[in-house]
């Protein structure tokens, strides 16, 4: 018999038949231990309905792997097998992890620069045509990460939710809906194919009284949900865990609860996908966010209107800063959703030239496909093109652009809203620099004549939204 | 191919193969072996021991017939196959130590292991007489774990010692990171064996905190880990500490995941594995770490960390008994004994260290030799108390005002430390309890001349460093007079709690 093959960071899956009676989600324990040489990695299996149980695994090393199952059900216990992990295919760089305390890279060492966006409920519309449109729009966009929710808001009545049931009255939090997850997995897989990371928001506070009640469950109930989610989705290499959106809006949970849930996710996740939590209220109170020095958070997922806070956040916790919400481009009534594309680009440049990452979001009223941040669809704003331009410039530069600036070989300097007719630069005097003037809105790069060194002054057009790129020659 | 056809459980099995002398074999011995029993398979890489000698080591953890298949470019096509019989373990051999009951340790055969460690970073690079003295001292003391550096600071070697680094000396005496020094490993192995004979675990730190002279490339790092682990994993008393992160500012950008993965791949003995550093220096929840090894003065952190990470916590460096230089070397003995008691009664473990300078300008925690301080007899005393106690005592989170470990309803040990309590109220339904008043510094135990049950107050002398032990001596029918405590039978009402 031919040995089954799985590419590195691909997904190995086994399906087993087992008990269907009672409540298999609760009654049956199933896990497997995968072994590569002497290293053993344990993962949970899950019940997929109709008497079928599955175990998924993402191998991270090429070569021979063996596994053996462990279960409370006799027919699922002690099942063993093996497979061969082959080289990763083209464009599969593995899961993203932190690099050097403020950057990201894929598992194979390729740098990953998060250019994220938000489409909270794009998988909950029940409209496949709309989902195809969203995927197509993301594929064409400069975005490589999308924040998306697993659970519905209070007033949503999608055809299926993570739990069994279709409305708050019949939702059963002791059972999951395998069809809901199968659909979600299809969407995550499609994102993977177009090179987009799925930043999964596991809880959110928008399920207030009279709703589904999923945001006010006990820690034990939440563990039950998290364990199932991780068993199903952990083997997708493009998954990130965002424990909650605007966690501080959830009055039913304390910071201690969130710590406990984050630690639980860490314990169950054999791969250690990126793990963070996103603040709400505190966006209006300067730099009072979650305590990101806690070891179980891998990066700082921030909501803050001020990209200038990046410097302070990086100094406080030695972890990458991703300002996942910095106000959205749009025209809605709420403060968070009505800045111009120009204002958003100003914040992008401010954040990135301070060593952080900024994310996009868009919400226009009265557009045919609805608000992008809620349901995906089509992008109408003016920022995506400019974000593409910025991404290209960052990608052209050194991998560690902040390190290069410190070391003196390269600098990207953003001049913001100020109108300079000239600008003083202080450069090392043992090197010669070429300077370019960047118009962040009109997306032009023009060479400043001559080379510069030491204390120099460049003449500028006295226009806002300009940046300078310095490169040692 | 040479090997013994029988080996005792958890002893080292060794396969020896001659080869042409070739220093390139240090980097890659070209020899991989699969050991199999039933459906289980374990893997051991061969290593080069110099002088044309290739060795494969293995530690069988199950009695019965094991088969092996060695293969690789250093062997004829098809490799070599063989079998050996694993016999029952020798009396007193319990196997390697593992994590047990989430936050504790036990030997592989289930016997509880309570770490009473001591720091001995460079004792293995001293002369014969000094090493013999160290072993003699250890034998007479209670320590059951010694922390050693695999790359000890060369300045700490004994006078005239030439064997002090895992790496061979290259041109001009500079270390050659592509070749190892078999003499160093032979010496180290003698030390591991001697420790093992006295029931002492050897915690080996692979990368030291101060590596100014040791700058390995990533490839050299990986090879070094492979060599060390393949060679030493056959010693059942070995623990791995991949790196000492010092005070937390060092190498904080280095991801030790890759190094830990290499250890786990090569380690056929499945030994304990951790990183050592300040509380904020590493993500302790990472699943590739079996336990937490901290450098931290405030030992009360033990109860927080066991709760958060659900792993055993050892404060391996909370300061040494000594008079300097530096704060970390200047603890009075009372303070170190306090830290060891406090850490233990908070559900963690604390390691001893001594920086007092003795004869010949040496000190215990670097060079070994003889203990000078006043701590160790008190640690002896504590260990005896613990060895009389039920296994796997758990920290009682309800009694945070006085650190207490217990077996609920049967046994409790409360430590008052700096707090000079004059009395303590207990509520202990369901039995009759003997109470011991313990002066931890003077090592005196006073058994109160009556037994106690239900609600009772124990008077204390109001002095420093006292502990109280409650042991159930008989079951007494519950009278039902103290209903409000039934939910928490061991809840004591503390002074001002």
Automatic annotation (TrEMBL), chain A:
<dbReference type="InterPro" id="IPR013783">
    <property type="entry name" value="Ig-like_fold"/>
</dbReference>
<dbReference type="Pfam" id="PF16586">
    <property type="entry name" value="DUF5060"/>
</dbReference>
<feature type="domain" description="DUF5605">
    <location>
        <begin position="405"/>
        <end position="471"/>
    </location>
</feature>
<dbReference type="InterPro" id="IPR017853">
    <property type="entry name" value="GH"/>
</dbReference>
<dbReference type="Pfam" id="PF18310">
    <property type="entry name" value="DUF5605"/>
</dbReference>
<feature type="domain" description="Apiosidase-like catalytic">
    <location>
        <begin position="102"/>
        <end position="336"/>
    </location>
</feature>
<dbReference type="Pfam" id="PF13204">
    <property type="entry name" value="Apiosidase"/>
</dbReference>
<dbReference type="InterPro" id="IPR032260">
    <property type="entry name" value="DUF5060"/>
</dbReference>
<protein>
    <recommendedName>
        <fullName>DUF5060 domain-containing protein</fullName>
    </recommendedName>
</protein>
<feature type="domain" description="DUF5060">
    <location>
        <begin position="5"/>
        <end position="71"/>
    </location>
</feature>
<dbReference type="InterPro" id="IPR025277">
    <property type="entry name" value="Apiosidase-like_cat_dom"/>
</dbReference>
<dbReference type="InterPro" id="IPR041239">
    <property type="entry name" value="DUF5605"/>
</dbReference>
